[in-house]
Specification:
Elements (H helix, E strand, L loop, with lengths): L3 H13 L6 E4 L1 H10 L4 E4 L2 H7 L6 E3 L5 H12 L5 E3 L16 E3 L3 H7 L4 H6 L1 H12 L2 E5 L3 E4 L5 E4 L11 H15 L5 H19 L10 H8 L5
Helix pairs in contact: 1-2, 1-8, 1-10, 8-9, 9-10
Length: 236
């Protein structure tokens, strides 16, 4: 309840990038904001029974923005038992290992979170961004979306993508929630496609939208909500 805006931003970004039926499980406080800011989304109680009831009718799931650690582990474990693509962000980046499964697992840390996940310093991560992300992806057989001055997408087979050219104005709160919403939305629309290519297209859309906003706003004034609105002005 201390960060109710996180899930609102993710919800709005998902809706702007073409997701059809969006179901959001969140706290009572955040739910009220979504009803006002994103009435197109369906909201439900943040309980395991409610979440379990919808798993058979969705094509991808994301978890993490604004999530408290008290409930994160139970829900993350539950979702990883499903056969759906799962995106883990923010409060859901808690696992030291991941189960073997046929559907992909995508982790989307910023550098500070990734340093914590790998028990390293931020400086050591910055010294070798792609090498560190790739090592983690191969070791754990997950896809890593590492958010820095570029967006790195590291594949479990050692390959990947680098998305550059985003506005420097994205280095502020809410930007990661926005990207999370975009990526989860696109995975839901293409659950059986090339996962990393889909993620790369989402990251490119996000980066291009931020640069479009820069045409009318100084980077220091750029907000995540500006980028979300810009997403609807063009597609990839």
């Amino acid at each position: 309840d201390t960060m109710p805006g996180s899930i609102q931003l993710a919800t709005r970004a998902a809706l702007r990038t073409g997701v059809g039926k969006l179901q959001v499980a969140t706290t009572s406080l955040a739910k009220q904001g979504i009803i006002v800011q994103a009435p197109e989304a369906m909201v439900m109680d943040q309980t395991l029974p409610a979440i379990q009831n919808v798993l058979s009718s969705i094509s991808a799931v994301g978890i993490g923005p604004g999530l408290s650690q008290e409930v994160a582990e139970t829900w993350v474990d539950h979702l990883l038992e499903s056969d759906l693509p799962v995106v883990l962000d923010a409060g859901a980046l808690i696992k030291e290992s991941y189960p073997e499964r046929t559907a992909p697992i995508i982790v989307t840390p910023h550098i500070g979170e990734f340093a914590r996940m790998t028990n390293q310093t931020v400086a050591s991560i910055q010294d070798d961004l792609f090498g560190q992300a790739t090592e983690y992806a191969v070791l754990h057989q997950v896809t890593v979306v590492l958010k820095s001055h570029v967006i790195l997408i590291a594949k479990p087979d050692g390959g990947g993508f680098v998305i550059s050219g985003a506005s420097s104005g994205l280095a502020k709160g809410g930007s990661g929630d926005t990207l999370f919403g975009i990526l989860t939305s696109l995975l839901a629309q293409h659950p059986s496609g090339d996962v990393e290519r889909t993620l790369a297209l989402g990251a490119e859309w996000y980066a291009r939208a931020s640069k479009q906003v820069e045409r009318r706003l100084h980077p220091s004034s750029l907000l995540a909500t500006d980028v979300i609105e810009e997403l609807g002005r063009f597609g990839l």
